[in-house]
Write a structure and sequence with these properties.
The chain is mainly alpha-helical. The chain has two helices and no strands. The longest helix has 73 residues.
Length: 118
C-alpha cells in the first residue's frame, strides 16, 4: 500500500509541476507579446523622430535660402553694409555697457594661534 501512496503523491506532484510550467509558459508568452508591442512602438517613434529631423533640416535650409534671397533683394549683401556694421560697433557716441563685476577669489581667513594650557 505504501508504494501506491508514493505513486499517487508522485503523480500529484507531477500534475502540480505541469500546472506551474503551463502558468510560467503563459507568463512568458504575455511578456513576449508586451515586448513585441514596445519594440514596434519604439521603431515607430524612431521613424517619426528621423522624419521630423529631416523635415527640420529641410526647413532650415529653405529658411537660409530665403534669407539670402531677401538680403540680396534688400541690398544687405553689399560689402558696404558689412563695413557699416563694423563701424557701428566702434562708435564712440554709444553709451558704454557696464561690465559685470566678478567677485574676487576667496582667500581663507588667517587662523588664530591656539593657546596652550600652562
Amino acid at each position: 500500500m505504501s508504494a501506491r501512496r508514493d505513486l499517487r503523491a508522485a503523480l500529484e506532484e507531477i500534475r502540480q509541476l505541469r500546472a506551474a510550467l503551463a502558468e510560467a509558459g503563459r507568463a512568458i508568452a504575455a511578456r513576449d507579446e508586451r515586448l513585441n508591442i514596445l519594440t514596434r512602438q519604439f521603431a515607430e517613434a524612431s521613424a517619426r523622430i528621423i522624419r521630423q529631423e529631416t523635415e527640420l533640416c529641410d526647413a532650415r535650409t529653405e529658411l537660409a535660402a530665403t534669407q539670402r534671397q531677401l538680403d540680396a533683394a534688400l541690398g544687405m549683401d553689399d560689402p558696404a553694409v558689412e563695413a557699416g556694421a563694423r563701424w557701428q560697433s566702434r562708435r564712440t557716441d554709444l553709451p558704454t555697457v557696464p561690465q559685470p563685476i566678478t567677485p574676487a577669489p576667496r582667500v581663507p581667513l588667517p587662523q588664530r594661534p591656539t593657546q596652550t594650557a600652562a
